[in-house]
Amino acid sequence: MPNAESSPTGHRRQNSHWPVLLGLLAVCYAVAALGGLASADAGETYGALDRPAWAPPGWLFGPVWTVLYGTIAVAAWLVLRNPQGPTRTAMTWWSVQLLLNLAWTPLFFAADEYGLAFLDICLLLAALLTTMVLFARHLRAAALLLVPYALWVAFASALNLTIWLSNT
């Protein structure tokens, strides 16, 4: 007969993982909030830039990033919940990409340093791809959750480069 801490199949419940998920979500949305503070006039700045015809409207960034930050947190949570060996290296790279993500907004919007922002986003993409490879070693689903993020960052890199070249 299963004990009180086991499911009917005999597996232990993973209730202790929920606080970890909440913590990861808090970290990711704190990065979003800090980025928001650094880009208080982002809509005005973005609207004043010479942008390519394929640039998305400014209103799209908020909803896209809201979803992406959630998937970034859930991907890390899945790795921590289902480790296949040590997670330190994978989580270090996850942290690095998140810090590079945090650095981009003030570089681009607050400092108007489009070239440094482009360097940062290229490093972000490299760190993100490294994170995905390391996450895939633990749980393929965790790496796959980061695919939309990687695609958006690759698109944003091209947009950043085009804006830099058009506005300098």
Polypeptide structure, described:
The chain has 168 residues and is mostly helical. It is 73% helix and 0% strand. Helix 1 runs antiparallel to helix 3 (61-81), helix 1 packs parallel to helix 4 (88-110) and helix 5 packs antiparallel against helix 7 (147-166).
> pLDDT below 50 for ≥5 consecutive residues: which ranges?
1-12
Q: What profile does the largest beta sheet have?
A: none
Distance between the termini: 71 Å
- Helices and strands, in order, run as HHHHHHH
Cα radius of gyration in angstroms: 18 Å
Q: Mean pLDDT across all residues, rounded? A: 91
List the topology elements.
Elements: H1 18-38, H2 42-48, H3 61-81, H4 88-110, H5 114-138, H6 140-145, H7 147-166
Which structural traits does this protein have?
168 residues, 7 helices, mainly alpha
In short:
This protein has helices at 18-38, 42-48, 61-81, 88-110, 114-138, 140-145, 147-166.
